Amino acid sequence: MSAYGHQMEREFSGQSLLSPGDSGTEIGSRYIIESGFYMTSYAATIFIAGLLIIGVLLVTLVVSLAVMLQSCESRSKGMVEIEKERNSHHYCQILALHGKLNGFKPDEVPPVCRSLAVRHIEAVGYTRDLEFTMRMIESFFDSISPSNDSVDVVLMDIDDILASDPRSNKQDGCIEGAMYRKQRRTLELYMKLHFRGWSLILLSRKPERRRIVTIENLNSIGYSGWSSLIMRSDRETKMETSEYISRRRRALKEEGNEIISVISSQMDALTGWSLGIRVFKLPNVSQF
């Protein structure tokens, strides 16, 4: 074949690969379309299921974070409330101490402190305080004995125990119940000390004109055998209570008595002169 014939054959072969009117650019475009993303229906199902699972996990994560955040906020709020209650507790303790020292009246105590005092009694806190104090007093007297000449005396405040009749066993409320326990335990302590031979002197802030009624009340609830009962004379009713009690203790001392202990729930009986070897303060129901 001639050279001209070979050239014609190559041109014809090249043109037969293209349809009429095609160009190189059109070939490139068709290649891009044919190379697009393709998957079977089974693969598509798996892909969609995976997207749904991821979506559910994301929603679950968001909900969990929201719950955790709310829990943290609640816990933080609880801590704030606890701290607030602790602050109120410390405040009322300080106020109660100064109230005892200065003789605050019940209406001078803030409502928050009265509320805490009631809650303290309801939670059996007062009973624990009372029992601990009584055990401490009994432990002290277990370690000593009265002298044979009967000059060793124990001074006991009776005004609290005569506030109401312990035989009535009132249990209508936590305050009444606490008062009853205090009166009962004080009588038990009195009987133990009396049985062991201690000379017991009873102290009252009431005027002398009420002596007969006071003795009848004491006898009716089980008190007997005391050495003496101190009550205010007409002249002493004008004195401050702390001064009246201090004067009576000093008079006992000048008469040759040795005051071993003073037992009371009121601060006016536990301050001043001639307090003896050991003083014991019983927890007071009316104050926190």
Automatic annotation (TrEMBL):
Question: A single Pfam family, by name?
Answer: Acid_phosphat_B
Which UniProt keywords are present, listed alphabetically? Membrane, Transmembrane, Transmembrane helix
Coiled coil located at which positions?
Answer: none
Q: Where is this region: Disordered?
A: 1-21
Question: Membrane spanning segments where?
Answer: 42-69
Q: Which domain of life is it from?
A: Eukaryota
Can you say what this protein is called? LIM domain-containing family protein
Q: Which organism is it from?
A: Hibiscus syriacus
Lineage per the UniProt record: Eukaryota, Viridiplantae, Streptophyta, Embryophyta, Tracheophyta
